[in-house]
Every structure is written in structure tokens, then in C-alpha cells.
Amino acid sequence: MSNNTERWKPAVTVAAIIEEQGRYLLVEEETPEGLQLNNPAGHLDPGESPLEGVVREALEETGRHFRPEALLGLYMARFVRPSRLEDVTYLRLAFTGTVSEPVPGWVLDKGIVRTVWLSLEEVRASAARHRSPLVLRCIEDHRAGRRLPLEALQIDPSLYEPCVKN
């Protein structure tokens, strides 16, 4: 038990694990640590369900419409960024599904350099360039056949109600 009176809150993120013909869709993005690879992923926004968030993030980062088919799992990882003295724990909800062809004229989200399709072997070989250890872990779990029904997530209607401030 800590004496800190501030409640600890992990950063909640969503990720899309997308595979077609043995290749996985990743994004190459600019980060404070340099050019890194990640699953299409990002922070969950207030008033947004995890499914809505992963659809939005996948579109913003890949320019493709994502259709979630299953929950892959919930993952936690801690990231310490020495350059900013930042210590963050991430709680990631990872989904698997399919994507459309690229939306014509779509401009990728700020910081995303490009999208790439990599085989599992190429993903493993590029581990030193991954934004987090969860990139490969989610892909390995996908390859192993891990799937949970989307109904495992229950969203209460109160999520969409306006926030009342005291």
C-alpha cells in the first residue's frame, strides 16, 4: 500500500491485429525513441467504447475500415521513457478482424509514416523496432488462435451520457 493519495490509472489503449494471407498489418510511426513499428493502436477516448475506439484508430492510422470479429485479449505492459522521466502502464484491449481496401485519398494520422504488411517471421525479426513488447505478443496470440467473443465486452449506456461536473 502506498502513501500516495492520487489514484493510479493505467493508460487504456485499443489495438487492431489484422492478418491477411499470413501477413500482419503494422504501422511505422515516428516516436521520441525513433521510427518504430506498432499494431494500429491508440488511446481510448472519453465516451467511446473499445469497439468504437479500435475502429476509429485503425482508420486513422491505416486509412482502412476495420471490422472487429473477436477480442484477442487484455494486455498490460509498463513503459519507462528516460528522456521524459515518464513511467506509464498501458492496459491494451486487442481485437482481431478484417479491413477494407485503403480509402482513396486518406491521409494517415500525424506521426504515421506508412503501413506495412509483414510475415510472422518478419515481425519477429523486427522486435527491436517494436513500440512495445505487446506488438509481437498480440500477433503470437492471434497466430495461436486465441479468440474471445465480442460479447465478452459489455458497455453500459451510461458511457454515452453527458458528464456532470460538480
Automatic annotation (TrEMBL):
Matches recorded under SUPFAM superfamilies: Nudix (SSF55811)
Enzyme class, spelled out: hydrolase
Classification via Gene3D superfamilies: Nucleoside Triphosphate Pyrophosphohydrolase
Protein origin, superkingdom: Bacteria
Keywords: Hydrolase, Magnesium
Gene Ontology molecular function terms on file: nucleoside diphosphate phosphatase activity; ribonucleoside triphosphate phosphatase activity; thiamine diphosphate phosphatase activity
Family annotation (InterPro entries): NUDIX_hydrolase-like_dom_sf (IPR015797), NUDIX_hydrolase_CS (IPR020084), NUDIX_hydrolase_dom (IPR000086), NudJ (IPR033713)
Enzyme Commission no: 3.6.1.-
Occurrences of domain Nudix hydrolase (ranges): 7-140
Co-factor requirement: Mg(2+)
UniProt xrefs under PANTHER family: NUDIX HYDROLASE 23, PHOSPHATASE NUDJ
Subunit structure: Monomer.
Family statement: Belongs to the Nudix hydrolase family. NudJ subfamily.
Protein name: Phosphatase NudJ
Organism this protein belongs to: Roseateles oligotrophus
Chain's gene name: nudJ
